[in-house]
Amino acid sequence: MTSIFAPLDKKAAAVAFILALAAIAGAWGSQLFGGLIPCELCLEQRRAYYWGLPIMALILLLWNRLPLRVWYIAMAITTAVFIWGTFMGGYHAGVEWKFWPGPTACTGTGGDFTFDALKDLNSAHVIPCDQVQFRFLGISLAGYNALVSLAVVVLLVVSMMAQFRLNRKD
Prior knowledge:
Layout: H1 8-32, H2 40-61, H3 68-96, H4 104-107, H5 119-123, E1 135-136, E2 139-140, H6 141-167
């Protein structure tokens, strides 16, 4: 069955994978080469990529070998993971803009430790979640992460819709 949706299902999923891979590579690059230190919420946002990318890679590698039901379940799980990533990016951006409070573990002012046993902790560089280290065009990296995660979600939904249209019984 030929349709305009034929190439769209796999292409949308592949673009979602490439976009997500570029985002996590950018996050690691900004940390390792750019000197940006991730806060607790930054690290939490990366989990969507650590879980979603391997699932997407398997889906793409096994594209024509997976039973359709398994394919839909895997795509739904991946989409849900990136919905969580979108939420976390938006939540973190909101914390940075002071729209709502962040976790007390990374937004509190804290006090200085004076115990000798905690010297290593005193010298550790902790980045507060509510302070932006870098903005581009007025958007922080957390904001860009929310946008990228949302784009991945949209692409995965487009892929599932195209697959559904290809396989529905008229």
